[in-house]
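Quick one:
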Amino acid sequence: MIRNVVIVGGGTAGWMTASYLKAAFADRVDVTLIESAQVSRIGVGEATFSTLRHFFDYLGLDEADWLPRCAGGYKLGIRFENWNRPGEHFYHPFERLRMVDGFSLADWWLALGDRSRPFDEACFLTRALCEAKRSPRMRDGSLFTTGLDGRLGRSTLDEQRAQFPYAYHFDADEVARYLAGYAKARGVRHVVDNVAHVARDERGWIGHVVTDEHGTVAGDLFVDCTGFRGLLINQTLGTPFESFQDVLPNNRAVAVRVPREDATEMSPYTTATAMSAGWMWTIPLFRRNGNGYVYSDEFISPEEAEKELRAAVAPGRDDVPANHIRMRIGRNRESWVHNCVAIGLSSAFVEPLESTGIFFIQHGIEQLVRYFPDERWDPVQIAAYNDRVGRAVDGVKEFLVLHYRAAQREDTPYWKEAKRRRLTDGLAERLELAGSRLLDEETIYPYYHGFESYSWNAMNLGLGHVPTSPAPALRHLDPARAHAEFARLRAEGEALVAALPSCYEYLAGLND
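Output:
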């Protein structure tokens, strides 16, 4: 029986893993986490998927308790600015499209010819709430949409059925600290030390690690949460890393944390703003913004990128330090090798454009619990884990490549090159199909990767990749119910904007 799990590396990945394993297995599995006091944390994973709610519910943690302790905020979607033309924006929301007579509102928007309102404004509630900077919760704490509130219990990604309408922004370091307290209170052994040596047994598997001050730490299963270093999975076991830079060239980022002049001006969305050689994130936390420029050093130097970022978000603020980050874009050929599983940046990273870093951590942990080994180390189970984790990453890769290929911007060498880069397998066919009709669950990337067809269509339509004509069947259907649904959605948006508190106002109540 596998009883001893050793996690090497802390941060968000390490403490999420330790917490979840304890929530799942309690005292039936012993967990030790080793982290160095000298290793700095990347901290770019401050925006998340709406699926993260399942993680905290599984642990039995109340949002009203943990969110204010982590400088947290709400995220209703992503606002894409300047990806087509300067001054234009659209939203990718956490909101499924409504259906009328078997067709989505996006189909009806194409068919009815009313282009006076943007696609996302006509077809989603989210844009109205984002533009008004509204909280997704009423003053009494209830969710703005019915039927989705309350504890989900021990639900997982595989059990997800409804689209929860928001995700979170938070300080990733504070989340790691919060989860460390949770995990240690449930018996996780915390070793603060440097790993000096990783020993392999006669099979070539990891036998134990040797630390500077605590000596040997042995285990049955080792989890690599050492970030881009990949201390166990890559440096020790030699697992090949497959780069995605042939299709996703961004390999660096520079980040700054900027206090908001008016703290109350808190947006409930992440902003992704196109820049000369990449894009910039803006992540509003409770009293400050996190900003960063993700770029390719083929087209701009780190010094030039920092200058461009500061000019955009912190002019005259030379006192605000900048953090330069080298990113390893791609994934391991296998994230589970022998008795070692890589979670987080040591497994895969596909740049932060759609906030997938923490999603990959959550997905990897859940799959580890699902395929947790016994003394047989069944290779079929391990292969199933690697297939699921690898396919999820590959699907996100394809979805991100779509962003760059479908964007209308071509005003710099970087954006011109984005149109010439190789398309991933399957994406060329999907883009060609999207020129004729909207995609559905049968025609997007076929394996689970966290994004549904509404996301693919929201990005295609928002980026101007619009089908040449609507579905012919709609010419034979009575549009009255569709017109009524568009009107109903608009009225709901206006009523919610009037009823909901601002994002800052609601969170201020939690932080009192």
